[in-house]
Every structure is written in structure tokens, then in C-alpha cells.
Request: fold
Amino acid sequence: MIKNRYGSFFERLATLYGEMDSSYGNAAAYYGFDCKGCIENCCLTRFYHHTHIEYLYLLEGLSSLAQEKQIKATKKAVDYNKKAIEYDVKKKQVRQMCPLNFDGLCILYNYRPMICRLHGVSHELKKPGRDIVYSPGCGEFTRQCESKRYFRFDRTPFYIKMAQLEKDLTLKFGFTTKFKRTIAQMLADDP
Ligand code: SF4
Reply:
């Protein structure tokens, strides 16, 4: 079972996700930002995820669902990937709904990856040896909150901890390949 094999890494990841959620929540509360009903919907964005640990954790979440739902999500992921290839070949920019979004809700909300947790609110990031980069937040955030003064929301410590966690995991289990997959590719095991 995945959980037993990666248990201590999953615990570290869950703690890190908790820190992200709390920090994001503070920033969103300051702005009074609420993205419910947003028509842009970030679940329609083709995000790539870059860590084995988040992939394994998502699979752990998937395995906790009823089998019928697992099958449905995996089928949706296969369709998503097929269409994504077709659109790419035709050089069409078509947004598709993430296969984990069922009727507007994420069915693996507690297991969703970092970018799903941090996307939206204006933030800053400091990469080693570079200046701090400030990012404005998503379209809905800009519409609702651009007149407000910036609330410091620093993603840097989360990225550092995630990189360390990924490094520890890959060293322990000897993973040598780089990881880059969408949610649909993770679910359909389609690199
Ligand atoms: S994993 Fe969940 S929150 Fe993230 S894009 Fe998919 S449905 Fe949305």
C-alpha cells in the first residue's frame, strides 16, 4: 500500500499543505477575496506539477475514493489527454476541465497539489541569487482586490520546503527522472 511506503513523506507534505492553506487563508481574508462562482475557473487551466511526492499523494487520495469514482475520474483523464493531444496538434488553445472536478467541486480537495492551493492571490517569490518577483494574482483577484494595498504573501518558504521534501524522497527511493505532469496525466499514468 502506498501509504505505508511513503507515510512519513505524506505526513511532511500534509503539514506543508496545512501551512500553505493557513497562509493563503490569511491573505484571502485580508483582501476579502472569494473566488466562488468565478467564470475563469482555474480548474480549467492546464497546470503542470513537478514533484513525485505530490503525484504519490494524489494517488493515495484517489485510492481512498469509491472504486466507481476512481474509474470515472480515470476515464475522464484519458479523454482529457486524448483531446489535449488533438488540440496541441491543431495548435488550438482549448481549456478543459480538470478530470478531478465533478460538478464544480474537487473530489480530491484535501490531496490537491500546491499550485491548486496557492493560485489566485497576489504573491512574491525569491529565487536564490535573484531579486524578489511580485505576481499580481488571477483575473478574478485583480477584479475584486486590485485597489487594496498589497498583503505580504510569500511563496518562497513553501517552494523551499517542497524542494527539500522532493529531494529527500527521490534520494530515499532512487527516483532519477524529472517529474512534469498534468493532473490528467497523473491519473491516466500518461507521462
Ligand atoms: S486537482 Fe482539484 S483543485 Fe486542482 S485543478 Fe483539479 S479539480 Fe481543481
Notes: The first strand starts at residue 101 and ends at 102. Residues 53 and 166 are 6 Å apart (CA to CA).
